[in-house]
């Protein structure tokens, strides 16, 4: 099996730029703190395994940033480019060679290197893998890219309860698909509250 690529889609945790929905409920300072927290945990997981991590970030001016070491100098960085989320994800898929490609964002604080390993192991026996988010989206999507793979990101209803369903429906009808555990994506103040409550309950 070819070495997997883990594509991390993330923006610098700046006030007014990242976590804008969260800022509406908790204020820009707290939203920035949470964005920094979730990004740090995501990067720790993404940089701790036998795969090739590649950061896709925006705006282009952020490509040279280190964020205090969260984005280390050796990390390969690429521009998300212009367009909506479909265009940005298509760009990452197009720039990846054939083989396992895993997409993650930086909104799920419970992502771990073990879960990323599980996703890549799943791609040894499946065509695709999802890490479902509780809101109907997904915190991870992985696919075995082939030379003639068509985009699974077209006509997806992003930022809503149908995002994972839409991507899944774009896969070939006979595709073997695996699922990882469901995690909480921190997009709004209610998600942050639920994540903290769940963390307290589980010790």
Quick recap:
The protein is of the alpha/beta class.
Structure description:
The protein has 203 residues and is α/β, with parallel strands linked by helices. The chain has one domain (5-201): Spore Coat Polysaccharide Biosynthesis Protein SpsA, Chain A, CATH 3.90.550.10. 33% of the residues lie in helices and 19% in strands. It has six helices and seven strands, in the order βααββαβαββαβα. It has helices spanning 20-26, 28-46, 85-94, 113-122, 163-170, 189-201, and strands spanning 5-10, 52-57, 76-79, 99-104, 128-132, 138-145, 177-179. It has a seven-stranded mixed beta sheet with strand order 3-2-1-4-6-5-7, sandwiched between helices. A hairpin with a 5-residue loop joins β5 (128-132) and β6 (138-145). α1 (20-26) packs across α2. The longest helix has 19 residues, at 28-46. It is globular. The model has no long low-confidence stretch (mean pLDDT 94).
List keywords for this structure.
alpha/beta; Spore Coat Polysaccharide Biosynthesis Protein SpsA, Chain A; 203 residues; seven-stranded mixed beta sheet
Secondary structure layout plus pairing:
Blueprint: E1 5-10, H1 20-26, H2 28-46, E2 52-57, E3 76-79, H3 85-94, E4 99-104, H4 113-122, E5 128-132, E6 138-145, H5 163-170, E7 177-179, H6 189-201
Parallel strand pairs: 1-2, 1-4, 2-3, 5-7
Antiparallel strand pairs: 4-6, 5-6
